[in-house]
Every structure is written in structure tokens, then in C-alpha cells.
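Consider this:
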Amino acid sequence: MTDTAKPIGIAVRDLADVGRPPNRLLRNLQAKLALSPMIATVLLVFVGCTIWTVVFSLTNSRTLPTPDFARDFAGFGQYERLFAARRWKISITNLAVFASLSVFFMFVVGFLLAVFMDQKVRFENTFRTIFLYPFALSFIVTGVVWAWALNPAFGLQKSVRDLGWTSFSFDWVANTRISARVNCATDCVA
């Protein structure tokens, strides 16, 4: 027998692979089967509804599209009307202002709060509870509370006017000049 000859037999690494499925798709099959309802839900609800919305937006139907898709097909005409509308441009401007200001102020306020909380101040646990309590609430609940408080018809403005101060004005949400900044402020606080 020479030094280059290999012994005849089965290697130990070959014995370790005997119980393992040969295909990577079959590994963790039970976990994949358990996840299959969620995968089906994601595909049907999110992906399916997104495709439905895109197809529906290409028709001229105002309700559900008819089975005759070729007759209702409008192409990108809906989008051309949307992009030419003045309200669309105002909405995009408000979105840009809201996104840029809220992201900037969230980083600044979050960083400053973290720095101040790290300074071992008195009543640190109380401040931490006050700062973190809004995160325990749903963003929807917080948004509804802010909408109620800032609504001129039944919010703070109406409450103060009911107390006798009839000239009080607190129409921050209804005022188109400052509503985007007010939304940014409430988004940063909430």
C-alpha cells in the first residue's frame, strides 16, 4: 500500500448525513408548514391587494371594475389627472415638510432626551415614565387623542370658549398655514 492510497470504507462525515434530508428546501419542514398560513396571508392580503389596487387604478370605474377589463381600461390617464391637480402638489409639499421636519426633530429630541436621562438627574424614574408612556400606547390612540384636542369644533378651543373666553382661537389643525408644522410637532411629541 502506498501513501497515496485511500482506505476503503465509509467516512464518518458520510454517516452524519444519513438522517438529513438531501434537499435544503426540506430542512425545517415543520417550521415551514407552521408558517405557511402566514405566508399565504401575506401573499393574498398584502401582495394581492397591492396588485388589485394598481389594476383598479388603471380603470375608469368608480366602483368595482366590471369583468370587461378592456372596456374600462383607462391607462395612466388617472395618474396624469392626479399629477396635474393643484391639490396633489400641495399634498406633496406638505408631505415633504412633514417628513423632513418630523425625522429631524425626532432625532434631535430623542438624542437630547437620551442625553438628559443619562445624567443621573433627580426623579429620573418619574421622567423616564413620562417620556416613555406614549410609546406604550398605540400610535392610533395617540393620534386620535391629538386630533380630538386640536379640533376647533370640540377640542381645546371649544372648552375654553365654553368657559367664557369667546374670542379664544386654537385652530392649529384647521389653519392651512401652520397645520403641517403642527402635525410635525404632535408627531414628535407623541
Notes: The chain is about 65% helix and 0% strand. The mean pLDDT is 78. The chain has two domains: 12-81, 85-189.
